[in-house]
Amino acid sequence: MGNFKGKDILHGNQFSRKDIDGIINVASGFEKELKKKDSLTLLRGKILATLFFEPSTRTRLSFEAAMQRLGGGVIGLGSVESSSVAKGETLADTVRTVSQYADAIVIRHPRTGSAKEAADAVPIPVINAGDGTGQHPTQALLDIYTIKKELGSLKNLTISMVGDLKYGRTVHALAELLSLFQARLYFVSPLALRMPEEITSGLRAKGIEVIETEDMLKAASGSHLIYMTRIQKERFADLSEYEKVKGSYVLNKAFLDRLKKKITILHPLPRIDEISADVDDYPGAAYFRQMRNGVFVRMAVLAMIFGKA
Amino acid sequence: MGNFKGKDILHGNQFSRKDIDGIINVASGFEKELKKKDSLTLLRGKILATLFFEPSTRTRLSFEAAMQRLGGGVIGLGSVESSSVAKGETLADTVRTVSQYADAIVIRHPRTGSAKEAADAVPIPVINAGDGTGQHPTQALLDIYTIKKELGSLKNLTISMVGDLKYGRTVHALAELLSLFQARLYFVSPLALRMPEEITSGLRAKGIEVIETEDMLKAASGSHLIYMTRIQKERFADLSEYEKVKGSYVLNKAFLDRLKKKITILHPLPRIDEISADVDDYPGAAYFRQMRNGVFVRMAVLAMIFGKA
Amino acid sequence: MGNFKGKDILHGNQFSRKDIDGIINVASGFEKELKKKDSLTLLRGKILATLFFEPSTRTRLSFEAAMQRLGGGVIGLGSVESSSVAKGETLADTVRTVSQYADAIVIRHPRTGSAKEAADAVPIPVINAGDGTGQHPTQALLDIYTIKKELGSLKNLTISMVGDLKYGRTVHALAELLSLFQARLYFVSPLALRMPEEITSGLRAKGIEVIETEDMLKAASGSHLIYMTRIQKERFADLSEYEKVKGSYVLNKAFLDRLKKKITILHPLPRIDEISADVDDYPGAAYFRQMRNGVFVRMAVLAMIFGKA
After folding, report:
1. Which stretch of DSSP H or E encloses residue B162?
2. Strand partners for B159
3. CB proximity C36 to A under 8 Å
4. Do domains C12-135+293-305 and C138-290 have the same CATH topology?
5. What is the mean pLDDT of residues C153-168?
6. What pLDDT digit, counting tens, does each position of A59-109 carry?
């Protein structure tokens, strides 16, 4: 694994396959340690600043839990306040100021490229927790960690990604990371929400087998794991179009019965109705475990950038 | 005392008289320990999540102080954020997600029954910090703790409850807990805001002497302690009716002079004008001490659910 | 240095020259200690409550970082919540309640005199973090600390203050503190925003040389340090008047070239355009270091009021 001490975590593509193996190992080590003892002290005295210029409570709480589980402290801006702190001030000035108080920064911002801009302004490590339609690298890492943990290996997997593949930042980044492990990928979506051409062609250029289809059952039948995403109403100009596709991508008990094989199910959450509640007790339903894995992976990333992994 | 490790704290009636004695002892122990040393470490490494779907800053700060005084950490949602986290997501999904980050949850929610719903969704302990017109058990416990501490005993007490007894969640729960200790109770209110019939009859069925009256002076004259509550304007259809009763339930220096005996005064706060500022220096005015006791009681409850009491 | 244990920090004029020397020493000691070790434990187990009735995220984060770097904990109200906690409740009742949970309070409030009012209501120490047009003593202290650190001494300095000297709470307090050290002061502002007469006459009565001018270059040429402030549009009835003066008080690379001498530059931040980004790399540009010094100074103040300095 590369040395991430003092480094920014901005983009999924900054990790080699070796890096990812390393991060998984560190995260897995923390997961085991937390089972044995209540309290770690690796980052005692360190302060993480969370700057959320748009709400993402899930991600914020996950980072705060990760930092505290390592013995560190947190100071933070909520989205309401952050809009006031930035009033008339450049993003660079805001993060420069915050960098005087904290030892690392997690930033969420609606503008693509903003995390890079923040990182360039300060000498302390900056973690991108989502910059518009851009990146959210710790999300991709926790997805990979969950796949490894649920399936035992990242090798020779076939994975279906379902739903909004056009706008879904999560599936773009995950597909990219999975390409390091020679996965076979099904992309299941309505035509209007297909995976962008540059991504599929990029994957194929790396020798990854990509199958695009509208048929979720067919894809799932050939897959070890299905990664569901939400289809957002507001993406559709024609609402009747939305109502039509919405129904076709619902994973429920009936679907699992038709499937006639075991499968692992992930979802970045929140879900609305694309996974029914009657699936929650299914052994392969891993989406809440996925949330917990986010804490271990973020612990690993934090320990790494502080040079303590 | 029962074993509360891993248990939810949802309703005042889950405590036996022995449980309450036990909680008082644990809280009292923490109160003494905090006088001797700055810092306890009983819950080091544990994380409490505070989920406030409606504002109750007082309760939130009290829980956060309690958790930190035991060495634990806190992650939390304010009411502004919590509305966004829940957008389109079920309460069960929200608490299931948060349960992946934290070791226990405190929840405040406007809907009666929501705390139970949250508790049923997750394996970690959930503390109800107010669910609509339902329960707020740690408030009742801190009231009991304060009465014990101020009066030396919970036995053979006569207690007046004054103000809005119809809608006041606090007085309902307190009356119920006091019934375990054979208290005599005066219920002092305007007719429109009388204690609900099912509560008074329930108390009487347990052999508790209940006296309902509109005369605060008469009740106080026979009582060891007076529990004041706020009468809310918005409860009255006829505003002139409100103005009339409002004046009759003001506890001020003049009232205490007429009373010709010492009495202990509690109030869940905030007060508006039902207790005058000229009462604040009166030795029996215990409503700010009551706030402090809330921290000790919540420390006890937290220690108990983590199996560390 | 006086004994500040248990004392309120309300006004810049409560400090003698000896006190300021002492605070600088304590802050400097913490700055050095933090370079050697990650974690201090001086205030372990102590809780600071931050009550911000108007937003000042910069100040809040600085106090939170200071408290955590000393090992203490923080509970807090944001400006959104604080408005709800205070609904119908007196400020005195709010701080009395909070004083039951915390060991010290930092308060920011739009009303002049509110910090004193809060301090009078509670036995625990209260730090004024800005009360309307009144005081913000830790800001003045961090400015003094920065001047000492950047220039090596507080003696025999000539300092220019530039911009809005009429409404600028910061420059009023700083001028007062600097008068303890016999500084020579240039006050540079448009006529409409001159330093209030009572301040200049008060300084002169103490034997301080005060030069008022509209010429920033002249003032800077004779100064060791220039303290820039923002000129707020909304102060001007006639907008064309604003546009005229605005341009004259911009510190940029071109100005520094014309200046032909080294100078130290401070600014309380946020800046809008009164200091150009092309100045940020100038060795004397100390405004971000000034932010960091705020943490050390606030650590000193916190340690002092807890009797641990």
Report:
1. strand B158-162
2. B185, B225
3. no
4. yes
5. 94
6. 999 999 999 999 999 999 876 666 666 667 899 999 999 999 999 999 999
**At residue B222, what is the residue type?**
G
Averaged pLDDT for residues B116-135? 95
Model pTM? 0.95
**Chain C partners of B288 at a C-beta cutoff of 8 Å?**
96-97, 100
Cα separation, A82 vs C125, whole angstroms: 29
Contact (CB, 8 A) for C224 and C157: yes
* In chain C, where the domains are located: 12-135+293-305, 138-290
Token pair 């993060």 in the structure block, residue: A95
Interval B152-157 mean pLDDT: 95
Sheet with C73-77: strands ordered across: C73-77, C47-52, C104-109, C126-131
The dihedral through the CA atoms of B191, B195, B201, B204 has a sign that is negative
Domain C12-135+293-305 has CATH 3.40.50.1370: yes
Query: Is A31's Cβ below 8 Å from some Cβ in B?
Result: no
CATH of region B12-135+294-305: 3.40.50.1370
Which single residue is written with the structure tokens 């007490």? B157
Give me the CATH topology for the region B138-290.
Rossmann fold (3.40.50)
From the list C49, C88, C100, the residue facing B270 with the nearest CB is: C88
Measured CA angle at A47 (ends C275, A55), to 5 deg = 75
How high is the ipTM of this complex? 0.94
Instruction: Answer yes or no: is pLDDT of C124 > 90.
Output: yes
Residue A145 confidence class, pLDDT cut points 50, 70, 90: very high
Which chains touch C (3+ CB pairs under 8 A)?
A: A, B
Q: Please report, rounded to a whole number, the percentage of residues in chain A having pLDDT higher than 90.
A: 81
For testing contact with chain B, the best of A30, A31, A38, A43 (most B CBs within 10 A): A38
Percent share of chain B, pLDDT over 70: 97
Q: What angle do CA A230, A233, A237 make, to 5 degrees?
A: 135
A vs C, Cβ pairs < 8 A, gives 66
